[in-house]
Amino acid sequence: MMATPPDDITELRATAEFVRTQDTAALLPHLLPDLDEAERQALAAHCGLAHAALLVFPPDDAALRAALAACDLPADTPSFPSVVVRHRLAARHGRAEADLDVRILHPRVTGPDGEPRTVEVCALTVPPGSELAGLAAHERAHRHEAHVALEVEQPNALLLHGLRALLTRHGAAPDGGGYNPHENGTVLYFTLPAAQAGYRRVELHAHGNYPGVLADHLADGGAHRSAETLLHLLTGAWTTQALAVSARLGLPDALDTATATDPRTLARSLGAHQESLTTLLRYLTMLGAVTEHPDGYRLTELGTLLRADTPGSMRALALMYGGPFYQSFAALDHTVRTGEAAFDHLFGENHFDHFARDPELAATFDQSMAAGARMFEPVPAHPVVLAAAGAPRPGTVVDIAGGNGELLGRLLTAHPGLHGVLLERPHAVEAARRRLDALGCGDRADYVTGDFADVPAGADVYVLSRVLHDWDDARCAEILRHCARAMPAHADLLILERVLPADGSTSLATAWDLHMMCNTGGRERRADHYARLLADAGLQLLDQSPLPLGGAVLHARRAAAAVPHPAAAPEARLPA
Ligand SMILES: C[S@@+](CC[C@H](N)C(=O)[O-])C[C@H]1O[C@@H](n2cnc3c(N)ncnc32)[C@H](O)[C@@H]1O
């Protein structure tokens, strides 16, 4: 039989023990440390501990029942589907509610004076190998659903208003609630400023319906949540820097996911100030990059992405967003006032020129682009690529401004007959050559060191990946004219970009639109905008398909009656 994870059984046993032994009067000053004696007595006279709640992740129902029995809880306790916890989990993790099988059970226990209590067991089924394992690890680390519930004895509206006022005066923030007609009960949730007695959330439960109290509670909660949301947004810069500094220090590389490292050892190995490092680690714990344990800190799955040696590492992105692009964002107001890229204003030159003069920065930028390469995963299977690869004489793909060869490498690796040409600036050509050689497809690649004007003619597929968004419309039109001029009548052009949604809904493209404006003077565009730019260059947008990370691939060809632009330069030929 499959078993509930040992960490969950430990937590269940501890919660059951807490409910069995905890005296309400002794618990209250732990939850609200500033209560004076009169307040504590008044609260204890009106409220009693009813349950403590936890979320566990059994592989199936039988394993959950066995876990209950192992903790001396009735294994035959009925379960019912959760609505609230399931909704909260789905919202927190961006999941469909239908994917989350959350059930609730209330196994009965008795308190120290024989009073009836329960343990509220919320159980999300996570079978072995399930992709919900990451969600479970996050929830175990953060205990968002853990709470204690106080039953209000002989409730009335006046008493509930008074209890609400008392709790909020002591820093407990209203955090939602509701009326359940099936059990004729009103629930008011509060969040404490910090975990007390192991709990951050408190529930007040009262028998009966108190619509006025509930309305006030929900309204206060709304205002509180807005303020908290705004604080999170305003401190986004701290998050960027905490992650970037960790990456720069090599902190994720010095930690492990399986065994903990104590801050002293870590500070010594990183050459850091121990107390400051511990503060940073606590913040990283809040962000979910590390977890805290009695013997130190462990890296999480998310934190692992900041290691240098992880496949798909995002370390270079952290260094860029916490480095030059962080500095330029501090001058965003210049861009908004003048329309000029803040980066150029701050550094005195275009970011490509700036990076090109600093080999280390240029390499970090290329690696940061590669960190978003998950977007490329479906491209080798694009019909245009399949057609070129499957032709009797396999075709040639030209990757224009192909960076360090990440995409071309994937195309050539997936299709051993394809030939590739990479057009880039000198430093990137060298990086691409090394990459394609390492992938074992360097012998099927040629390199053109040059400018957009040097797009070689005569190939079958042309690719512009994350290039057009770097430039304003005039420069894009020029680049597309160079492509159109080089493309034979049968050739296809694939444009990879984040495309702004036509219906105005937000997407990752909305965020990168701001980033491009601030740092490159470019922008993200809607598909109809690309269609117009293409048409001006004598090309026709044929279709569009989605890519991971909010990307899309736009497919274009020469318009049937395309007339070469008069400004077009003489053709560059494919390398011999
Ligand atoms: C945002 S990166 C995209 C790289 C790659 N296509 C990708 O998707 O990862 C833009 C690339 O344009 C190249 N680039 C900038 N100006 C260029 C020019 N005038 N001619 C050719 N390439 C240029 C840069 O070197 C950089 O690698």
From TrEMBL:
Gene3D superfamilies: 1.10.287.1350, Vaccinia Virus protein VP39, Winged helix-like DNA-binding domain superfamily/Winged helix DNA-binding domain
Statement: the UniProt record of this protein carries the keyword Zinc: no
Keyword Zinc assigned: no
Gene Ontology MF terms: O-methyltransferase activity; protein dimerization activity
Domain O-methyltransferase dimerisation: 231-306
Record Pfam families: Dimerisation, Methyltransf_2
O-methyltransferase C-terminal domain segment(s): 329-539
The entry's keywords: Methyltransferase, S-adenosyl-L-methionine, Transferase
Superkingdom of this protein's organism: Bacteria
BP-aspect Gene Ontology terms: methylation
UniProt cross-references to InterPro entries, sorted A to Z: COMT-like (IPR016461), COMT_C (IPR001077), COMT_dimerisation (IPR012967), SAM-dependent_MTases_sf (IPR029063), WH-like_DNA-bd_sf (IPR036388), WH_DNA-bd_sf (IPR036390)
Name this protein carries in UniProt: Methyltransferase
The organism's taxonomic lineage, starting at the top: Bacteria, Bacillati, Actinomycetota, Actinomycetes, Kitasatosporales
